[in-house]
């Protein structure tokens, strides 16, 4: 009897929340994205840009400007200011990346020469440890890892830039972004009109939470990454680090994963600084730069621009990026965190409904809860 009641409760939960319909739609959407992953990147980028600049269009609308003209003004500003900056930045980084990959063996050799006295001093405390082979092994494997990793990054970076420059940025993406910005309110009204009347209020509440999460990531976290990338790139270059701009850009990009970006950039900066300079002031300057960066990120940038809107643990962010990259490549990396945020909201909403259902509370407790 108890098993039968649990089965009936599960069926009621499934029917009352339309879980079957939503689950089927979710599977169809995932299949659609996977099948068409090869052509979706410019459309996804256009949607992201439309979502990113929508608040700016709204500000122009508040000064009695039509939606179409506000969109045109925003596009002109982007073309005059942001696009030239990106072209210059990509040119500098791609040039530094090629030089860095070629110079990796020399940097590793210099680093090993400077750390050889350390290994020799350690051998005095550990007589059985053969320290003579350690520098050679570390140099060999580290050099191979850096060269292979750098080659993959260069390939990904160059291919992505080439695709965006030739196809997306010049043709498809601007068109998609323009129509998304101009017709955003129309899309929202049409989607709102299609919501089931029975669950209209509840679904709108969920969509509002999704909107906050997406704005927290697309408008907030991306802004943090850009600011950190510019800060680290300019600061490291002013210190005299040859590949400062590249390291700063990489640090800002990986800062989408809390702590991982700053730690990676910090360690790489220390290694290159120690290999390039023979004094402590440069190392101290690198430590100060990343200390200030962490302070700004933790106390000002993230609380003000992101807050707790994304609602994802750093471990889940890393998992989402790895899973997205494995399934959809570069497109998966772009949408991994937003999709993970949406899935997290849907799961939390489903769990709340489950905790109010007969399946969780039992029939008597559910009746008490309904009376309250």
Shape, per Cα inertia axes: globular
N-end to C-end Cα span = 28 Å
Q: Which sequence of SSEs, written as H and E, runs from N to C?
A: HHHHHHHHHHHHHH
**Strand composition percent:** under 5%
Q: Which runs of at least 5 residues are low in confidence (pLDDT < 50)?
A: none
SS element count, helices: 14
Class inferred from helices and paired strands = mainly alpha
The number of strands is: 0
Radius of gyration: 26 Å
How helical, in percent, are the residues?
Answer: over 70%
- Indicate the mean pLDDT: 75
Outline the biggest β-sheet: none
Q: What features would you describe in this structure?
A:
The two termini are 28 Å apart. The model has no long low-confidence stretch (mean pLDDT 75). Among the domains are: 1-35 and 312-372, no CATH class; 43-194, no CATH class. It is built from 14 helices and no strands. The longest helix has 59 residues, at 67-125. Helix 4 crosses helix 9 (260-276), helix 9 (260-276) packs antiparallel against helix 10 and helix 11 crosses helix 12 (330-355). The protein has helices at residues 2-16, 19-35, 41-61, 67-125, 133-182, 184-193, 200-239, 244-254, 260-276, 280-306, 314-328, 330-355, 358-361, 363-371. 86% of the residues lie in helices and 0% in strands. It is mainly α and 372 residues long.
Provide tags for this entry.
single chain; 372 residues
Summarize the structure.
With 372 residues, this protein is mostly helical.
Task: Explain the layout of strands and helices.
Layout: H1 2-16, H2 19-35, H3 41-61, H4 67-125, H5 133-182, H6 184-193, H7 200-239, H8 244-254, H9 260-276, H10 280-306, H11 314-328, H12 330-355, H13 358-361, H14 363-371
């Amino acid at each position: 009897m108890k098993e039968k009641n649990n089965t009936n409760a599960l069926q009621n939960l499934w029917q009352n929340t339309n879980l079957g319909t939503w689950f089927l739609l979710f599977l169809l959407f995932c299949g659609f994205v996977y099948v068409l992953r090869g052509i979706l990147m410019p459309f996804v980028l256009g949607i992201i840009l439309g979502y990113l600049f929508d608040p700016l269009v709204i500000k122009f609308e508040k000064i009695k400007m039509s939606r179409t003209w506000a969109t045109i003004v925003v596009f002109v500003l982007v073309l005059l200011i942001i696009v030239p900056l990106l072209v210059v930045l990509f040119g500098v980084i791609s040039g530094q990346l090629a030089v860095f990959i070629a110079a990796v063996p020399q940097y590793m050799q210099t680093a090993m020469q400077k750390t050889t006295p350390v290994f020799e001093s350690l051998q005095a405390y550990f007589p059985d440890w053969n320290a003579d082979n350690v520098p050679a092994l570390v140099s060999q494997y580290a050099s191979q890892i850096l060269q292979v990793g750098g080659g993959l990054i260069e390939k990904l970076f160059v291919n992505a830039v080439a695709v965006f420059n030739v196809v997306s940025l010049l043709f498809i993406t601007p068109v998609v972004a323009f129509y998304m910005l101009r017709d955003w309110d129309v899309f929202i009204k049409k989607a709102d009109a299609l919501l089931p009347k029975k669950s209209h209020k509840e679904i709108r509440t969920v969509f509002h939470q999704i909107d906050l999460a997406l704005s927290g990531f697309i408008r907030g976290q991306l802004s943090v990454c850009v600011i950190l990338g510019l800060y680290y790139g300019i600061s490291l270059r002013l210190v005299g680090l040859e590949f400062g701009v590249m390291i700063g850009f990489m640090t800002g990009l990986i800062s989408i994963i809390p702590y991982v970006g700053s730690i990676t950039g910090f360690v790489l900066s220390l290694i290159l600084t120690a290999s390039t300079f023979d004094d402590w002031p440069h190392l101290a300057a690198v430590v100060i730069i990343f200390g200030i960066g962490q302070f700004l990120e933790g106390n000002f940038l993230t609380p003000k621009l992101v807050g707790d809107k994304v609602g994802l643990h750093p471990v889940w962010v890393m998992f989402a990026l790895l899973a997205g990259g494995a399934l959809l490549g570069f497109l998966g990396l772009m949408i991994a965190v937003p999709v993970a945020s949406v899935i997290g909201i849907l799961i939390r909403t489903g769990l709340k409904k489950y905790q109010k259902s007969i399946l969780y509370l039992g029939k008597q407790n559910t009746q008490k809860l309904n009376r309250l």
